Predict the structure.
Amino acid sequence: MSDYAKAQVFKMSELPSSCPAKHIDTEAFVLIPKETGAKHYTLFCTEVHPGGEAELDTHPGREHCYFVLSGVGDAEVDGEKFRLRVGDCLWIPPGAEHGVKPVGGQTLRFAVVVSPPPWSDPLPESNDYAPAKVFSMEELPSACPPKHIDTDAFVLIPKETGAKHYTLFCTEVRPGGEAELDTHPGREHCYFILSGTGDAEVEGEKFLLNPGDCLWIPPGAAHGVKPVGGQTLRFAVVVSPAPWTEL
C-alpha cells in the first residue's frame, strides 16, 4: 500500500464542483481524486440540471458507466438510444461516443466510473468489449457476498460486459447485517453512500458514513461496514481491477 493514501472519507457536501468539458449546466464532484493514489479508476457524482447536457464525447482506452441515482435521462451511445431511470446502470465500452441529458424537468444525478482514471495511461485497444447495455437493478438477481450478513448485492457491471479494469455493485445491508472485515489485496476499492448511515472500519480506524460520503479503501486494507440507526445502508461499491481479472 506504499503508493496509496490511507483510507479517507470524501464528503460531497464539502467538495467543490466543476462543469466538465463538453457538459452544459452540470456539476461534477470528484469522489476518488488523484491524491488517493488510485491508478485503476476514479468515481464522480454528476448532476445535470434541466436544460443541461453531457454532450457526445469519447474516452478511448477507458471503461465507463453511468449509474442513475435520481431523475430520468435520455442517453446515447454510438447512435443507440437509452432511457435511463433510477437504479439503471449504463455500461459504456472504451472509445464509444456517448452522452446524456435529463428529461422531465428534474436534475439527473448519477455516479460515473472512469477506468483507468484520466491521470493514468489508457488501456490498449481491444475488441473484447460488449456494446453499450443497461443493467436495471429491478431486473437483476441479488446475492449475499462472502463475509456479509443480511446483505443484498447487485452486480451492475458484470463480466459479460468485457470490463477488465473495474466492476460496480450496489449493496444493501439491512439492520442487524454487516459487511465483516475483509481484504482485497491488489484491488482499489470504495463505498459511496446512497442512503442510510453506516459505521465503517478500515485498518482499525473508524468512520461514520452518511449519504454523499465516499470512503476510499486502499488495496489490502482490512475493511468492513454496518448500518446504524435502524435503516438499511445502501451504497455503491467499486472494485478495481475487477475480481475476474488477474493481478
In short: The CA atoms of residues 216 and 237 lie 10 Å apart. The two ends are 15 Å apart (CA to CA). The mean pLDDT is 97. The longest strand covers residues 42-57.
